[in-house]
Amino acid sequence: MNATTDRSRLDDPLMNQLRDTLDAVDSELAARPAMTAPWERIQQGMSRARTRRRRVRLARAGAGQLALAVAVVLVVTGVVSYPSFAPVVAVPGSAGKSALDDGLTRGSLAGDTGWLAALRQHIATSETWKESGGEFWGPPAARKISVIYAGDVGGYRFALVEGDWHWGPIGARQQVWFQGRSGASADVMAQGSNGDPTDLAVTVVSAMTSQEEINSGAVVVLSATARRVVLEPAPTIDAQGRVIRHPQTLTGIDGVYTAAVNTPGETLLSVQGLETTEQVSGARSTPENPPITITGTPARGGAAQPQNTVVQFANDAWAATRQRAASGGSFQLLAAEAPVRPRVDGFLQTLVGRLTLPNGARVLVTGEKRAQDRNMQLDTGRLVAAGDNDANLSIAWRRPARTDNGDPGWTAALGPVGTARVQWIHRDGSISNTAADHTLGATDHDDVTSVYFLDADGNRLGAAAVLDSIDLGSDVVLPELALPAGGK
Fold first, then answer.
1. What's the Cα-to-Cα distance from 225 to each of 159, 221, 232, 276, 421, rounded to whole Å?
2. Could you give the maximum distance between any two Cα atoms of the chain, in Å?
C-alpha cells in the first residue's frame, strides 16, 4: 500500500479484519514470486490474515470473511468501485512500466503543475471502461498517474499518461492518449487510443477525422531513444508522371518529435522501428475546389457501371495519388471485366480506370469488386505521362491466394486497344492463354510474372510485367508514391 495511506486502527473490528487482509496481500505483492498465479497469492495472504485474527470470535471472523467475499464480487462485477487505496495484482504476462515513464513530463506543458494536477484528477474521476467481456476497468488514483507528455501541437493539445487501470483487484498497466483543442483545460481532454506500455508512442490526427473540426493535422512521436522520424507532405507529380518528393526529417528534443500538418493532400509519417507508415490528412476539402469529371461508361466498350461504384473508384484513385482531394482533373473508366468470375461468396469483377491530374499527368489504376459488399477495392496503379491518347495504355496485376477465405488468387491484365487474347507467362515457364473482353482478361492463377497482349490474328501488341496488389490491410497509396517504413 502507498505510504501516505492512513493505517490507524479503527473501532470497527470488521474493518480491521479487512485491512489485515489487504496488508497481507500487500506483503505478498512485495515478494512478487514470478510464477505464482495472482489469485493463489491473494488466497495465501487471506490465510495468513485469518491466522493473525485467531483471537477474534469465530462468528465475527466468519462474518468478516463473508463481507470480504461479497465486496470482491461487487467490485469485479462493477456494482461498486474498487477503492483507490487498495492494491492491484498485475495480469500475468502484461507489460510493466515503460522507459518513457521515468518521472519526467515532456512537452510545452511540462512546467504547468496546475494543469497536470487537474489532468490527473480528471482521469482519476473519469468513467469506468465497460468492455464486452463483462470487465469494468477503473482508472488509477490521481497520485498514481504518470503524465509522460503534455503539450500543444498546431491546433491540438495532446497528453500521454501511464498507469494501472484495474478490474477489481486485477491491474493492467496502460498508456493512454488524451486530446483536445490547443489551450484546452484539463477537464475537457478526451480519451483517445490506449495500449500496453511501450518505449515508442505515436499518435496522429487528420483534419478529415478530427473531432475538434480543426482544418489541419498533427503528429506526436515519443521515444525513449533517439531515432529517425521522417514526415513527407504530398509529393509533386509533374506532367511527365515524375515524382518530386519533399521529405522532412524531424528533430527530437528530449525524445519528443512533433509537427503540425497544414499542407493539403496526404502526408506520410515514417518512424525508425515501426514497420508501417502513418497517413495524415493536412487540410479538409473546401467548396471552392473544382469537382472532378467522372465518366462511368467504359471507354473500351461494355456496359456502364453503377454510379456509386465509379465514384468510389475515382475517390480512391485520388487518395492513392496523395494529391489534394477534388482539386480538378477527370476520371474515366476504361474497362470492366465481363463476364464476372464466380466465387464461393458470389462473384469477382476487375476494373481499370484512368485518372487525369490538373497538369495532364495520368494515373492508370486497377480495382476489384466483390459480390458480398459490392464495394470497390483499389488494387494498384502506375503513373503515365500526359497525353490525349489512351489507346496504348496497358497494365497487369495480381492478387495472391488467401488462406482465410479460400480465394485461389488471380492475375488480370488490360492490353492496348485491339487486344483479343492475353498470354500468361507463369513462374515455372509454362504459358497459358485466355480471351480478353474489351481488352481486359483474367486468369485464376497468381504465379504469373509477365504477360503478352495478342490481337485476333495472334500478333503481339505489347507486353507488361505483373504488379503486386496493394496489401488489403494497408493505407492505399500507389507504390511510386509510398514512403519507406522505418524512417528510411
1. 19, 11, 22, 19, 57
2. 104
The C-alpha atoms of residue 159 and residue 77 are separated, in whole angstroms, by 30
Neighbouring C-alpha atoms within 13 Å toward the C-beta of 124 = 17
| Region of poorest pLDDT, from 113-127, 131-145, 211-225, 433-447 | 131-145
Q: Which of 433, 390, 428, 393 is nearest to 411 (CA)?
A: 433
Q: What is the CA radius of gyration of the chain?
A: 30
DSSP summary character for residue 228: -
Bridge-partner residues for 209, per DSSP? none
Of 461, 399, 466, nearest in space to 436 by CA: 461
CA–CA distance, 207 with 214 (Å, rounded to integer): 6
C-alpha cell of residue 163: 498507469
More confident residue, 409 or 48: 409
Q: Residue 116 and residue 178: Cα distance in Å, rounded?
A: 12
CB 336 within 8 A of CB 349: yes
User: Which triple of cell numbers denotes residue 224?
Assistant: 525513449
Mean pLDDT estimate for the chain: 81
In this prediction, residues 313-337 reach a mean pLDDT of 85
- Cβ-count burial 338-372 (b if 16+ within 10 Å, e if not): eebeebeeeebbbbbbbbbbeeebbbbbbbbbbee
The residue ranking higher by pLDDT, 75 or 268, is 268
Q: What's the length of the chain?
A: 488
Give me the DSSP letters along 18-61.
Answer: HHHHHHHHHHHHHH--TTS-HHHHHHHHHHHHHHHTTTS-HHHH
> Is the distance from CB of 173 to CB of 96 less than 8 angstroms?
yes
pTM exceeding the 0.90 threshold for the entire prediction: no
| pLDDT for 471 | 73
* Collapsed DSSP state (helix, strand, coil) of residue 229: strand
For the stretch 446-478, pLDDT in tens is: 999 999 999 999 999 999 999 999 875 556 788
Q: CB neighbours of 50 closer than 8 A, spacing ≥ 6?
A: 61, 65
Q: Whose CA is closest to 438, among 460, 477, 412?
A: 412
Hunting for cell 465497460 — which residue is that? 130
For strands 89-90 and 170-181, give the pairing. Answer: parallel
Residue spans per domain, the chain = 13-87, 113-281, 293-481
**Residue 132: φ, ψ to 5°:** -65, -25
Confidence tier at 25 by pLDDT (50, 70, 90): low
How far is C-alpha 378 from the chain's CA centre?
19
Least confident of 78-87, 148-157, 285-294, 425-434: 78-87
Better pLDDT: 61 or 194:
194
Give the whole-angstrom CA distance, residue 203 versus residue 278: 9
